[in-house]
Description:
CATH architecture of the largest domain: 3-Layer(aba) Sandwich
Strand order of the largest sheet: 5-13-12-11-8-6-7
CATH superfamily of the largest domain: Type I PLP-dependent aspartate aminotransferase-like (Major domain)
Number of helices: 14
Mean pLDDT: 95
Distance between the termini: 87 Å
Helix content: 25-40%
Structural class: alpha/beta
Amino acid sequence: xxxxxxxxxxxxKSAQLHASPIVEQAIDRxxxxxxxxxxxxxxxxxxxxxxxxxxxxxxxxxxxxxRGKSKLFFDYHGSxxxxxxxxxxxxxxxxxxxxxGIGPMFFGHxxxxxxxxxxxxxMSDIILQGNLQMNEDSTDLSNLLVEEASGSSKLxxxxxxxxxxxANESAIKICYQKHAPASRVIAFENxxxxxxxxxxxxxxxxxxRVGIPLSTLVxxxxxxxxxxxxxxxxxxxxxxxxxxxRYPGQHACFIFELVQGEGGFNSAPRExxxxxxxxxxxxxxAVWCDEVQTFGRTGAMFAFDLLKLGEYVDVxxxxxxxxxxxxxxxxxxxxxxxxxxxxxxxxxVAIQAGHYMLDTLRRGKYYxxxxxxxxxxxxxxxxxxxxxxxxxxxxxxxxxxxxNEMKRIKVAGGLGGMMRFTPFGGRKDPVNKFxxxxxxxxxxxxxxxxxxxxxxxxxxxxxxxxxxxxxAFEVVERALARxxxxxxx
Length: 489
């Protein structure tokens, strides 16, 4: 057909709505108003007044009662507004959020550009998208994930889902089907996989499976021991060989946390993973990378890319930062029809916000040795090390679960935006006391590890400024001093 005779396809009504200047002006006005109001949320502060504080206490009591538990983990209910790393609670107090709901709020609270995206997404006809009914934005997000993953790996397909746990459920089904009738799973000690029946059995925490019938066959291997280095790698590789020999052809997959999350933000050198992954390939065992917590925040979008492990990966699960979670897999692991499905894969708001965040990350100056994530990690480590040098009495030798000193474990560690530090020698009770004191003083954190115990940060590095660490460390130091004083009392 001659170009001069062609006519443009008529725009959909949805496109007409979103192109409307009335819609654009309304969103602009709302965002401008939000910017004005949120500008007052810029520092840690106590409740605004006793009346609000009293109502807040009543709200917390109601929350605990309706949940059937005696108390929430933190006395936390947000007001619904924040400003970058700062979040306002329902009593008018403001805290600095350095854990971000264990990761999702990478671009902070009430981010104007994210809010703009979600306001438009809220105009969609579908609140929750699923495998029976989805809009084009879910495929846009899927394409972005595959494009990023396939650059250094054989990952070619993706299945979106509504939680990291369900992404892991999808992954284990894919591995089981590919290697049927193999029914065993290999995982690292102290791993965490989620809280479904199956994932609670794989996760190495006895408290998560109390009363759950055990139906999943799991073999555990120790994670890399930095205290012993290459000797640790050789020993664990030998244990893997014994498992393969003991159960020939019976392992469907080996689940790799490239940085252990709940286990203590433990990392390992590339050589450790290569040795184990090559042995898996030789034995016909699927290599599954669980990146639900590492995704997007370790110095590359995928941690397997940072460690140059892409050639080994058969299946990869992601979540948290991406807003909508996903299971990615290679063509060789493409499952048969019917294995993967779900009524809901996530909300339209989450899908569009996730796409915006990931696109911003890959186009911005976040990754690489000089990227924002690396700069923040350096600033974090320097701040903690400075504090430890001035107050060694708050830190001391770091002890393992047997009480032995760990000389190679530094007081500040982690990888990229997965940050940890270890006060009071990593002993459980004072670390927990400090965590709650830190919350009371105005900074949100969480713990990780099983001996030693650490404080972990997953800060909103998408928007956080380097100079904001100064105010964070002021609160950390105040909470450390308070905890040390209470321990002496």
